Amino acid sequence: MQQALIEKYGEARLPRYTSYPTAPAFAPVVGAGTYGDWLSNIKPGTEASLYLHIPFCRSMCWYCGCHTTITQKDAPILDYLDMLRQEIGLVSDRVENRIKMKHIHFGGGTPTIMQPEEFRDLIGLLRARFGLVAGAEIAVEIDPRTLTAEMAAALGEAGVTRASLGVQSFDPVVQKAINRMQSEAQTAEAVARLRAAGVRGINFDLIYGLPHQTVQSCIDTATAAVAMRPERFAVFGYAHIPSFKRHQRLIDERALPDAAARAAQAEAIAETLVAAGYVRIGLDHYALPSDDLAIAAKRGRLRRNFQGYTTDTCETLIGFGASSIGRTPDGYVQNEVPPGLYAQRIASGRLATVKGYRLTAEDRLRAEIIERLMCNFRADITTIAARHGFDAAPLLDGNARLAALADYGAVDISGGTVTVRQDHRFIIRAVAAAFDAYIDQSARTHSKAA
């Protein structure tokens, strides 16, 4: 039966559900004016998360699904950082000291492409413009191949608490096929520099489903990574969407594993990490038992946002930079994607928002159900629906997607509660999709479910 599920759902393109509704539902009807109003509606004393997108890299990794630009020059980066500072000013003028930062996340691209003094100045500006909650988390995504000792020291001095390092695979055959050569020694050196600088939380990103990848190469990579003892792992399946990411056309599709092979690779990595003492969290995260993420999962407090599984409970996310997505209690917003167009908007004194989504009461209901399924593999539909003022029956009765999963033996439905069976958790995205009112409109833009 498991093999039948892999064959049916493994090739299906489904959201990762880091938001609901997902980005394909965003529309231009929500623009800069609407976002300005939403910022003004934020209540005083609100604890918020900030996301800053740095869309530059020195070279292109062919598997990459991020919005990024390749540059060998520093001038475009400096110009962009100037626009980022202006955007921070525009937003802070509208929220008028009504938020306090609890989480700050620098994503990319490669955030550490900026110089150490530029990073220090940016953190200083955020501290000056927004209040900072005691014990706030500051996280940065890092390419270990380009992290200098000076930059590592600057991260520590700026109060960075967590660093996410891209590893993907240590297999040189796979690395060549994705245009990302990165040795174990380079990665270990980056970890050592960060720990010496006082960055206490280290995350590794691994990927399965890459060209020429095998179960054994996945095990070997996970074993080598475990030896460096990061606090967390995020393990993602490669999303091959060359129609949207043209550089992925450089990958030999004939070398990509099929759905069954991808599932075997994912499970091999999981078994290796669990055997090394990591706790399996949700669909694709792993953490040491003492890590905050593992503790949150154990206590039923796990959340999910654009960075994946998280301890972040903030309902307000302020996004800065080209393509960045934010959220207020009213809905989602996204900035202009191309850095040039983003810069034009900011330079004119306008917010860069070009699309978004205004949340409805039903959206909030479905969002909570999907988040509980993704985090806990279980959702009490009756209780959640009642809390939002809805009847649970329409969500369960006549739900063809859910009924099909129940027929396959993937879920149990009892007393209004949906539970994903232990040995079918790999299909959780398909279970979540059963409660997605927009899934048929957006499926082509998402990654494979297994």
Detail the topology: elements first, then pairings.
Layout: H1 2-9, E1 13-14, H2 32-41, E2 46-54, E3 56-57, E4 69-70, H3 75-95, E5 99-108, H4 116-129, E6 131-142, H5 149-157, E7 162-168, H6 172-178, H7 184-197, E8 201-208, H8 215-226, E9 232-237, H9 259-275, E10 279-281, E11 285-287, H10 292-298, E12 303-305, E13 308-310, E14 316-320, E15 325-328, E16 331-335, H11 339-347, E17 353-358, H12 361-376, E18 378-380, H13 381-387, H14 393-396, H15 400-407, E19 411-414, E20 417-420, H16 428-433, H17 439-442, E21 447-448
Parallel strand pairs: 2-5, 2-14, 3-4, 5-6, 6-7, 7-8, 8-9
Antiparallel strand pairs: 1-21, 9-11, 10-11, 12-13, 15-16, 16-17, 18-20, 19-20
Helix pairs in contact: 3-4, 3-11, 4-5, 5-7, 8-9
Number of helices: 17
Number of domains: 2
What share of the residues does DSSP label as strand, in percent? 15-25%
Which CATH-level-2 architecture of the largest domain? Alpha-Beta Horseshoe
- Enumerate the strands of the largest sheet in spatial order, edge to edge or round the barrel: 10-11-9-8-7-6-5-2-14
Unreliable segments of 5+ consecutive residues: none
Largest sheet: 9 strands, mixed
Written account of the structure:
The chain is α/β, with parallel strands linked by helices and 450 residues long. It folds into two domains: 1-20 and 360-450, Arc Repressor Mutant, subunit A (Orthogonal Bundle); 21-320, tm_1862 like domain (pyruvate-formate lyase- activating enzyme), CATH 3.80.30. The chain contains 17 helices and 21 strands. The strands form six sheets. Strands 10-11-9-8-7-6-5-2-14 form a nine-stranded mixed sheet, sandwiched between helices. The longest helix has 21 residues, at 75-95. It is globular. 46% of the residues are buried.
